[in-house]
């Protein structure tokens, strides 16, 4: 899978397209499409990776792991999963055919929930360009929004 194909796949997940991504990241028109045939510039590649919260290695096809979550996210997920584990271990916490679930069944459910929460956090992350984080000019934002809406 090429860098462009991976970017297109990520765009699909985020309900956007490559052209809109180029505008949002302030890349030249057609920049990302060129990556289907040529090597990307490292600065621009990092910008795209940051936008999707994936590693540059993922975009380059060196790994299949989309991203890692922040330490805080991991701690929050672990805390919630532990709370769920305690609730599920109660005699009426999780039942199958009127019988309490086995330890193995509870762990399977928790693993699936943990995976789902991680994926949801990854997909729902919002990208905020650095210029907006630094208190960028409001007029610049409105101009960018107008250009974005034209697409």
Task: Describe, in plain words, how this protein is organized in 3D.
With 151 residues, this protein is mainly alpha-helical. The chain folds into 2 domains: 1-67, lambda repressor-like DNA-binding domains (434 Repressor (Amino-terminal Domain)), CATH 1.10.260; 71-123, no CATH class. The protein is 64% helix and 3% strand. The protein has 9 helices and 2 strands. It has helices at 3-13, 18-24, 31-34, 42-52, 56-60, 71-89, 103-124, 130-133, 138-150; strands at 95-96, 99-100. Strands 1-2 form a two-stranded antiparallel sheet. Strand 1 and strand 2 form a beta hairpin. Helix 6 (71-89) packs antiparallel against helix 7. The longest helix has 22 residues, at 103-124. The radius of gyration is 21 Å and the shape is elongated. The chain starts with a helix and ends with a helix. Residues 135-151 have low confidence and may be disordered.
Which properties best describe this structure?
151 residues; two-stranded antiparallel sheet; elongated; 434 Repressor (Amino-terminal Domain); 2 domains; single chain
Furnish the topology, listing elements before pairings.
Blueprint (H helix, E strand, L loop, with lengths): L2 H11 L4 H7 L6 H4 L7 H11 L3 H5 L10 H19 L5 E2 L2 E2 L2 H22 L5 H4 L4 H13 L1
Antiparallel strand pairs: 1-2
Helix pairs in contact: 6-7
Instruction: Give the CATH H-level superfamily of the largest domain.
Output: lambda repressor-like DNA-binding domains
CATH topology of the largest domain: 434 Repressor (Amino-terminal Domain)
Indicate the percent of residues in helices: 55-70%
Give the C-alpha Rg.
Answer: 21 Å
How many domains in all? 2
* Order of helix and strand elements from N to C terminus: HHHHHHEEHHH
Number of strands: 2
* Shape verdict: elongated
The CATH architecture of the largest domain: Orthogonal Bundle
State the name of the first-level CATH class of the largest domain: Mainly Alpha
